[in-house]
Amino acid sequence: MPNSRYGGAMLKSTQSVTLDASHYELIEAMTDEVVILDATGKIVAVNMAWKLFCEENGGDAGTHYVGANYFDICEAAAMGAVVQAETVLEGLRQALKTGTSFEGEYPCDGPGVRRWFQLNANRLTIQGAPCLLLQHRNVTTRRMAHDDIERAHVQAETFAALVATTAEAILTYDMEGRIISWNPAAERLYGYTEEEALGQSVELLYPPDWPTRVLEYRDQIMAGKLRQFNAVRVAKDGTERHVTIACTPIRTLSGDIVSISNIHHDVTATRKAEEVRDLVSREVIHRAKNMLSLVTAMQRQTASSAASLAEFNKSFGARIQALARSTDLLVDGGWSSVDLAELVRAQLDPFLHLQAKAVDVDGPSVALGPQALQLIGMALHELATNSTKYGVMSNGCGDIQCHWSHTEKGGLRFQWIETGITIDPSAKKATGFGSKVLSVLAPAMVNGAAETVTSENALTWTVTIPAAHLGKLA
User: Fold this and answer.
1) pLDDT digits (tens, 9 = 90+) for 62-107
2) DSSP for 305-362?
């Protein structure tokens, strides 16, 4: 706000940051009046346009306010009943604190002249310190003619600096959907260099079966019907990225739309966490149903073999307690480590009470961290439940081996091998929730790998867990 009415602002002589020649070249290339503020709000650099404006409008022609505190100037303006000054001051402080760009307009009248200026503030880092780059643009004609329309026309140099330093992937495509700008964050997110991306259709990032084409998006954005949406996009290495895309049309000064700007915010980790949470929630419900079925089977078998009510109560109570001990191990995620053999025994004991068939359990001492504990516990529960319904534990025929060993990298290789059973090779491959527990939960929870292999008379489930999810036995 380089106006004579604020000429009494306090000047401070020591600059907290030192600009090099490139910074001065940047601001001198801009036609707007430009200043750079340090983290305290002090003006540390101005361009020639700012100096000329000061001199032409009665401002400080000696220092051009270099060394003055811009925040103090705004506070003085607010006390002088310039209502926009308080908003500008708060916006500048937030931009400096959070990195969120600020844009505002304020009156800066000269002698007998009514004027409006547009202020754009963007945070940048100089010598490791946060600074603000402020651009002042005379928008009096537009403000007077179209007071209800706010447009942001930022100089290409400033926009490029902001786009290059942001952590968000930003790309722009023309009216035919061809990429015309691609920032470093987009390269980090998708793996394509700027040279590889420019000129390509933005559909380069689309999954093969994505239902909406780029020109459909373009038409909705131009019509003002679409400002933000969620999508899945594919990186150069084939990795899927879940992104929230903010989109806006880019207009010329005359108002014509010439391109579409996209900001891609990566929410892949959030989506995966939601999927795991949903899967675990469904597993809790699934486990509860299986447990009720198991308790019912235990009750029936105990009742059929008990000679008296007292004998039934004693045997049935013992089996319920064993089931409870198994459940305690599985849900106690606060444990730092649990012995794998203990988990196997606790998990399988309630099932083995239903028939005399033993399971061959063998492997070295291994301590499981909470994630691995929950994973193997849920898998054992699923495998044992399926065996009780359809396999060895249902009729006592066949064998079950539960073996594990260390991998070359110090991880864990765990196997459930069930043989001597009958599997219909023509049966449809399982795609229900149980199969997801065995195939999806392992990679999601421990970044491991799981595989289920079946033949006519055998089923083998193998999971590999990285060493990071193993602990130390007390």
Assistant:
1) 888 898 998 888 888 766 656 677 888 899 999 999 999 999 887 7
2) H-SSHHHHHHHHHHHHHHHHHHHHHHH-TT-S-EEHHHHHHHHHHHHHTTSS---EEE
Q: What are phi and psi of 304, to 5 degrees?
A: -70, -25
Burial of 183 (0-12, 13-18, 19+ CB in 10 A): buried
Say if residues 379 and 348 touch (Cβ distance below 8 Å). no
In contact, 134 and 121? CB cutoff 8 Å: yes
Of residues 45, 17, 21, 19, the one with CA closest to residue 33: 45
Question: Residues of 72-85 as b/e, b for ≥16 C-beta within 10 angstroms?
Answer: bbbbbbbeeebebb
Burial track 33-57 (b if 16+ CB lie within 10 A, e otherwise): bbbbbbeebbbbbbbebbbebbeeb
Q: Whose structure tokens read 């009665």?
A: 58
Pairing mode, strands 338-339 and 129-138 = unpaired
Nearest to 287 by CA among 214, 192, 384: 384
Which residues partner with 242 through β-bridges?
232
Please tell me the pTM assigned to this model: 0.38
Q: What is the torsional sign of CA 315, 316, 319, 325?
A: negative
Taking Cα atoms as reference points, which of 24, 25, 28 lies closest to residue 52? 28
Lowest mean pLDDT among 110-114, 219-223, 397-401: 110-114
Query: 185, 170 in Cβ contact below 8 A?
Result: yes
Pairing of strands 179-182, 169-174: antiparallel
Give pLDDT tens digits for 33-66: 999 999 999 999 999 999 988 888 777 778 888 9
